[in-house]
Amino acid sequence: MIPIVQPTLTDFENVISEFRQAWQSGQVTTGIFTRKFEQAVEEKLKVPHAVMVQSCTAGMMLVLKALELQGEVILPAFTWTSTAHAVVWNGLRPVFADIQPGTYTLDPLAAAKAITPHTVAIMPVNVFGLPPDYQAFEQLGRGKGLRVIYDSAQGLGSQARGQEGVWRYAGNFGDAEIFSLSPTKVVSAMEGGLITTRNGELAGKLRQMRDYGKSSDGEDIAFLGLSARVPEVNAIVARHNFTRVDDLVSRRRELIRAYKSALGDPKYLSYQLIPENYLSSGNYFTIFINLQEARRSRNEVYEYLSRGGIQSKKYFYPALHFQKVYQEIGRPYQGRLPVTEAAAASGLALPLFTHMPEETVFKVSQALKDILQ
Question: What sections of 210-331 are H helices per DSSP?
């Protein structure tokens, strides 16, 4: 079986001495190595504050709680479930808005139309490594007095170029950005999450809230928090992998270019559009089957690849407003998010990981041609 993803990890010899140091210190969670990773992120991304947590989901839950929000949060239904989970866990109401054709990121115009007097925040999502339209959402947030919180789970290493022509890494936008460091991400901590923010007060509050919400002296509980502390071994792995983030992203872009070259530009499939002012982290390579031109449906292609020993993923499927857990919230949206529903019915993520050989690209591409041509 060709796996859809495998974590690309630093050599074990690079981390074993620090593992031993953490082990012998007795401080095996949220210690000096967690802070070293956070500092490496702050320096590389040029963001004032980075806070490592146990997962991206926990990070989103904590950010929403720390901002003390009450009301509605606008988000896409074309995203992983944890985006909405974090909203609902905080007693907030998710409001789904449609995505843009081509980029598949949240449509700023659709988000603007979804604003009501109860709206308190917008949560755009980084899709497959492509950031949403930062400029549009920053303007919308400022103009409407809304918090803008980015689910950047797949986005560590992605970049955006501003009006001044300067490239900035994801992590510098909105009230906060939250990244995943899970095994499926470009930079993996094995498991983990990361919050970046330019708000020092928010960062300090989050550091307390990841440890139950303890007061600064540790003798009281100041906030409603979580146990979202980080094992030092995960922080060590994260830092060593993060030092190579540019190389990891570059290699993935090479593999994506190889896929596109091997597959060509047939009428029966299309790719995510990357706007000229954005650089994707290349977290996933997802094709979209043109249901009018292709000989087979997305589901048939999925089954064919599986029988041939090639793992793929229907992504994002089902869209949130069709998931059982959100059936009551989502039912009114069914049929009203046409771009989302078309993408969820046609998207298929193909095998992609940084250390994947190009021969795998050609094997997967040939299998796709065999069934689709």
Answer: 232-242, 245-263, 298-307, 327-330
CA angle 199/77/144 to nearest 5° reads 45
Cβ pair 130, 271 in contact under 8 A: no
CATH number assigned to the domain with residue range 12-242, chosen from the 4 options 1.10.260.40, 3.30.70.380, 3.30.830.10, 3.40.640.10: 3.40.640.10
Q: What is the mean pLDDT of residues 59-75?
A: 98
Q: What is the DSSP letter of 30?
A: S
240, two tokens: 């060593």
In the chain, DSSP assigns E strands to 49-53, 72-76, 93-97, 119-122, 147-151, 159-161, 167-169, 176-180, 193-197, 269-271, 278-279, 285-289, 313-314, 347-350
**List of residues 6+ apart from 173 with CB closer than 8 A:** 131, 134, 137, 138, 148, 150, 160
Mean pLDDT within 159-186: 96
Is pTM beyond 0.85 here? yes
**How far is 155 from 186, CA to CA, in rounded Å?**
8
308-323 mean pLDDT? 98
Where exactly are the structural domains of the chain?
Answer: 12-242, 245-372
Q: Are 247 and 44 in contact (CB under 8 A)?
A: no
Q: HEC string of 132-189? A: CCHHHHHHHHHHHCCEEEEECCCCCCCEEECCCCCEEECCCCCCEEEEECCCCCCCCC
245-372: CATH topology: Aspartate Aminotransferase, domain 1 (3.90.1150)
